[in-house]
Amino acid sequence: MNARSKYFELGDAKADGFFNISQAAEASGVSAKMIRHYEDIGLVPKAGRTMAGYRLYREADVHGLRFIRRARDLGFSIKEIGALLGLWSNRRRASAEVKRLAMKHIADLDAKIVEMQAMRDTLKTLARHCHGDSRPDCPILDDLAGVACCDPEPEK
Question: What is the Cα 89 distance to its own chain's centre?
Fold first, then answer.
C-alpha cells in the first residue's frame, strides 16, 4: 500500500510503525542525506510520503538501509550493492552468484592492498631521505614534482 494514500499526518504514520527520515537514519546508521541520495540514484525505492511531503519508511526499508550500510562498510561499490540487493530480494537466487561477487570484491581488495603497500613503501623511503630540518631541500616534494631523489630500498 502506498503510504501517501492512507497517511495524511506524520503522527498517524508514526503510530502505525512508520519511521520518518531522521528515525530511519538513526535506526539504520545511514545519514538522511545518504538515504535521499540512494533514493535519487534508484538504489532504494522512493519513500512513501505524507500529504505534507514527509518521507515514510517501513521496518523493511530500514532493514534494507542496514544492508546497504554493512555492504558499504565492507567496501562494496554502489553498483555491487545494487546487485547484492537484487540477489538478497530474490529468494530463488543461487548462492553461487553471491559468492562470485564476494570473491571478485576480495580480489579487488587484494589489489588495492598491494597498491597501498607500494605507496607506503615509497613514502617511507622518501621520508627516510628527508632531513626534516630548516633546509629547503625536500625529497618528498622533489618526488611529487617528478624529480628523482633517492634510490629505493633494496628488497628484503
Answer: 20
CATH for 75: 1.10.1660.10
Measured in residues, the chain has a length of: 156
**Which range of residues forms the domain containing residue 46?**
1-79
**pTM score of the predicted model:** 0.78
Cα–Cα distance between 34 and 21 in angstroms, integer?
11
For 22, the enclosing helix (H) or strand (E) is: helix 21-28
Distance CA 38, CA 68 (A): 10
* pLDDT tens per residue, range 122-141: 999 999 999 888 888 898 99
Are residues 47 and 61 in contact, defined by beta-carbon separation less than 8 angstroms? yes
CA atoms of 11 and 15, how far apart (whole Å): 6
